[in-house]
Specification:
By secondary structure, the protein is an alpha+beta fold. The protein has 3 domains: about 110 residues, Butyryl-Coa Dehydrogenase, subunit A, domain 1, CATH 1.10.540; about 110 residues, Butyryl-CoA Dehydrogenase, subunit A, domain 2, CATH 2.40.110.10; about 150 residues, Butyryl-CoA Dehydrogenase, subunit A, domain 3 (Up-down Bundle), CATH 1.20.140. The strands form 3 sheets. Strands 1-4-5-8 form a 4-stranded mixed sheet.
Amino acid sequence: MIDYEMTREQKELRARMAACCLAEIAPRAAELDSISGSEAAKVVKDNLKKLGKAGYLDLLVKGDFVSQCVAGEELAKSCPSTFLSAMSSGTAFGMAVQAFGSQAQKDSLLPGICTGEKTGAFACTEDIAGSDLSRIETRAELKGGKWVLTGAKDFVTNAPFADTFLVLAWTAPDSGLDKGLSFFLVDRGAAGLEVTGAVETMGLRGAPVAGIRLAGCAVPADNLLGKAGEGYAIWKSITEWLKLAVSILSLGIGVACMEISTSHGKNRKAFGRPIGLFEGVGAKLAIMFTNNDLGRMLTLRAAWSMDNREADAPVLASCAKLFTSEAANKTSDLAMQVHGGHGYLKGTAVERLYRDARFAELAYGTSEMQRAFIARDNLNKYKPA
């Protein structure tokens, strides 16, 4: 018999995280959406320190995936922007160092990441090379005992205030993806590293984004993460973690939309009764609940599979990401419809969540790419005799 009951520890984790987010994170979520990038950076950095004290960042770096789902849903529901910033620092950067870094790298970097005193950033995407890593132009050459990096990255979350960047570059271009790419740890103060202008996004505006430029940026030889040529294998692992994280983000946004809409359906009256009692509105609330519940089950199934290192874990993460990201967009659209013209007003929670949700179908592999990956995996399993 399948047991869907959370353990006592997981229930306590959810309760602690919910209380922390309600008191410390949620009150400034709307503000983050409207203030300047520099002001947002200060708020997010402060939020990361609060999450560090709550133990959430340590959970992202060293904890199991199911617990990350349980705690992350509360954070994503309270402030999607802060979730994205924490995900970029704790998951894409911190977990990568924990999994593939040397002991010296872990000792140097992870204590600050786990407390929120230091912030990491994942620098992979380039202007002409999104998910197609073969088109990456950034190069790294070993000269005089140092790696010298040249190139540029865009859409780097946390770049305006990150302390260390995890940068993907070619070390042996002729060796192809499997053996030609490597990851490097680049400190913000490294000579030749420049953080370029901040980028404004449609949603998740509280998670500051910018590009970086590397002009002959020299880093010590031991700033290589793992071994030379292991970049593609590391990238695949990080991408799997991030697909799960985006599923959690999507679920949090969907739950927030449902809770706001349910409250509105109870309190808003028309023709003498709450609008939630009208079939058209009630049906939308039912769809929201169903989408969220199914999304949670898919996300937890993928997380459990990742914790147990099942062979199906990558495709299950894609299934979760595909469903939850599209469900979040549908749910935010339904929430807008429930609120009517009042939801369309700039500055309302529904309007903000509506914009935030759109990110999920695009990031770390679009819905089209997830479908292609799922189909390819299925076809490879069930080849005709």
